[in-house]
Amino acid sequence: MAQKLLFGLTILLGSLAMLAGIISLAGPQFLSLLHLQFLADKGLARILIGSGIGLIATAFVFFRINKTPTFKQEE
Asked: pTM higher than 0.90, yes or no?
């Protein structure tokens, strides 16, 4: 249960980071409407999009690792 919650939160955080990066590429007029002028930096946009992709990929990798059965020693 906790793994699914952590997986969902990581996907949500990665999606929000990617969305913030895409919004920051939209242009200063759109950002001034949302009062998000601090996102107007193109370097910050690349960092946010990259971190979002990284978070989502990490969540899928760890979720997949935890789903694979481990081999137990026979007694």
From this structure: no
